[in-house]
Amino acid sequence: MENETKKTEAELMKEKLLSAPKNAGLALSEEKIKKADKFCEKYKEFLDSAKTEREAVKETVKLAKECGFEKYSKDKKYKAGDRFIYINRGKSVILCTMGTDPLESGLRINAAHIDSPRVDLKQHPLYEDSELALFKTHYYGGIKKYQWTAIPLALHGVVIKGNRDKVIVNIGEDENDPIFCITDLLPHLATNQMKRNLADGVKGEELNILIGSRPFRDDKASERVKLNIMKLINEKYDIVEDDFMSAELEAVPAFKARDLGFDRSMVGAYGQDDRVCAYTALRAALKCEAPKKTCVTVLTDKEETGSDGNTGLNSSYLKYFIYDLAKSQNAEFTTVISNSECLSADVNSALDPTFPDVMEARNCSKLNYGVVVTKFTGARGKSGTSDASAEFVGRVRNLLDGKGVIWQTGELGKVDIGGGGTVAQYIANLNIDVIDVGVPVLSMHAPFEVTSKLDIYMAYKAFLTFFED
Ligand code: MN
Ligand code: MN
Fold first, then answer.
1. Which of 158, 187, 284, 402 could be bridged to 464 by S-S, CB 3.0 to 4.6 A?
2. Cα separation of 28 and 146, whole Å?
3. Ligand 2 center–CA 406 separation, angstroms
4. What is the mean pLDDT of residues 426-443?
């Protein structure tokens, strides 16, 4: 018999000419896989302590200070190795480490978002109906509303009182805290509801959060359950009903991040779009202490509602930050920004074996095939996207391959089947080369999203490689 190890001409040709993606579970060494698993332990902690944009900023500042980041000062002339942090209204944050190269050679920017789909309280939320107390809500971002019923919810956010004092709310996370929920109809009586479209299965105005049921003990008062609940809220937070008008209270799933699968290969948790990229980009920022290029990490708010608003990337806060930085270093702003490069760190949808029809198998991302590089997002004929140039894709490809980062390309579903966008277009509009790089996700925008630990680790490697290059 012939030697089995000898390759045929076709095999050799195939190796040379055709692409052969490999599952990271096979491509990575045992040691690397262990490292990835370990990396994700801290990631899960971050998810649990940063369920809202404000909490993500707080956690980021805490971790950054431990790594020598100081509060940004507009007038200071920074030198190589200096690290500082700029906070925009407590909801977005920019971390910067000065490089040895002149600022005019451009910045390296990793930009992720720290807001996630959720259910916000309205400004007059509290009411009583049928002797139960409830909160009216208005959902935030793209959600399938039916997924948010009958699950434990926690309440996070801030209340600004009449005297402008700020009260921080975080209830439902501690094991001893009470939780809340949006109720749904029992199947026995859902004959009519079941005939609705899935989109209307539960309607926006039906997302009412149950918060209490016991009345204030007084025979004469009306709305005694509402009164009793307001009394308890007042005792806990020292606020009155009118204070809800100047509040941002967000209902989020109360469960914690967990290992998923018998092999513990995945992370199941709320808010991984896009805290999986925010966390990996943050860790890269903390790790990269002496870069050549000045490294900027932007963790932004408002992506899920279209990036509008002064804490979103369709506003000028990043531009102004770079402008001020350029000015303090005597560098020309337009040169600095035009020579900059950015990885728009956001998730993409992974192939779901239960719903393969929405994906085009040759061009979609898969769990465990590494970080996803997405050339364009958008909808229809690439509308609402920044389609990265072949040159910039080539640049990123060369970079990742050179450092052994496992990566794949991805497209957000089949042509014309839907679509979506990221912050990439707003960064591109500043005349910066940008491309989407992130982690593939299953059940994106659901209260419980799924990612692969190896992909998470590869995202971290990608962001770090970009900074260290
Ligand atoms: Mn996202
Ligand atoms: Mn999203």
1. 284
2. 39
3. 23
4. 98
